[in-house]
Amino acid sequence: MARAPKPLPLHAQDLPGLTRLLTEATLGVTDIVEAMHARIASAPLLPAGASGRTAGLTRQVYGAVRGVTRGVGQGLDLLLARLPVALGPELQPPREAWLAALNGVLGDHLQRSANPLAIPMRLRAGGQKQRGLPDELPLQAGTGLLLLVHGLCMNDLQWQQGEQDHGAQLAQALGLQPLYLHYNTGLPIAANARELAGLLAQLHARAPQQRLVLLGHSMGGLLLRSALYQAQGAAWTRAVSHLLCLGSPHLGAPLERAGRGVDLLLGAAPYAAPLARLGKVRSAGITDLRHGRLLDSGPVERAPRATVPLPPGVACHALAGTLGARAAAKTRLLGDGLVPLNSALGLHRNPALCLNFPAAHQHVFEGLGHIELLGSTAVGQRLVEILQSSATSR
What is the pTM of this model? Predict the structure, then answer.
């Protein structure tokens, strides 16, 4: 007998945001259905730039559907605003997981529409139950600060995988204080990086003598590279001793590129063209992964990837997983299942696009998938060994 699905873990304050999102989704589906209706009712080879609107009575019907939908949405907004807010625990892993996934896919839309489900950028100190800004966090005197930045559709609690937490292991072994970033992964990488640079400037002002170690998983590594590049010359960048990129798609992620191909194919078919809108439901953050795009430079479809070099004076390491033996060509393409091996190591057949991680700073773990990199004790031990080393050259 099939198990009943588990209910979505919600707080009362989530309901207005979900209601607004459902209203917008209904309006969006109505637009797509009307566009298909208009296509079928017109010439088969109608140019793709046509309005996508029907005419006459049919247009009035679709207009009425939109009006009713907006009215219901506004009524629910008013009703929910009158309900008392019953706050649950600040950090509930199941809720944080679905909210992070939603932001990864729709985070830019959530922010543009001022939806309360949009995740604000915050830091959490190891062991704290709540997130805050740099001036709200208790800082400890020690050997340095460790900033951990999660990847796409994830959250800071997911650094804990089973019994393994790289932040906790590095804290115990080296005396570093782990700080976990939580952010909306659906926003453009460059925009998130600028906000992160501002937080790090505040953090450095509070602890100017502390060294800063940066560890990013997946998109997190790209975010850190972008922040260091955009904040060149800032005081906090001079405190950075290490940049550790764990499964980061420096040269892009092929899954996003495949999604872009589906968009193009749908758009080329006359009657299917309206459905291409569904394929475009991908956040700016996901699209930036297409070619490892770190900067705001031109239209994303046509802009060549700007080569952002590794930061000077920082020991930069690339750690990558592979599902099979490293030597196999198939393994290099599949990599950890999400990120090809060459992308994670910053290697390109065009030397001008290589990131030039030193050979000794390229670490490959066979038999580990993208998420398994977070739960691997072998990866954790390698991170300890890297930071214990006195080498700082790139």
Answer: 0.78
Instruction: State the Cα–Cα distance between residues 267 and 33, nearest whole angstrom.
Output: 15
Element housing 160 (H / E): strand 160-161
Top-level class of domain 122-252+304-388: alpha beta
Give the Cα-Cα-Cα angle 325, 392, 213 (nearest 5 degrees): 80
Distance CA 220, CA 229 (A): 14
Report the C-alpha dihedral over residues 16, 22, 28, 32, rounded to 10 degrees.
-170
Q: CB under 8 Å to 19, separation ≥6 — which residues?
A: 73, 76, 77, 80
Q: Which residue's entry shows tokens 């170690």?
A: 213
pLDDT in tens, the chain (394 residues): 556 555 556 565 666 666 666 655 554 443 433 343 344 444 444 444 444 554 444 444 434 433 444 444 454 454 445 545 444 456 678 888 888 888 888 889 889 988 888 999 999 987 777 788 888 888 887 789 999 999 998 999 999 999 999 999 999 999 999 999 999 999 999 999 999 999 999 999 999 999 999 999 999 999 999 999 999 999 999 999 999 999 999 999 876 554 444 344 334 444 444 434 445 567 888 889 877 999 986 555 544 455 799 999 999 999 999 997 765 656 667 789 889 999 999 999 988 889 999 999 999 999 999 999 999 999 999 999 999 985 344 4
Tell me phi and psi for residue 296, to 5 degrees. -85, 80
Spatial separation of the C-alpha atoms in residues 315 and 219, rounded to whole Å? 19
Residue with tokens 């007998």: 1
CB-CB contact of 250 with 344 (8 Å): yes
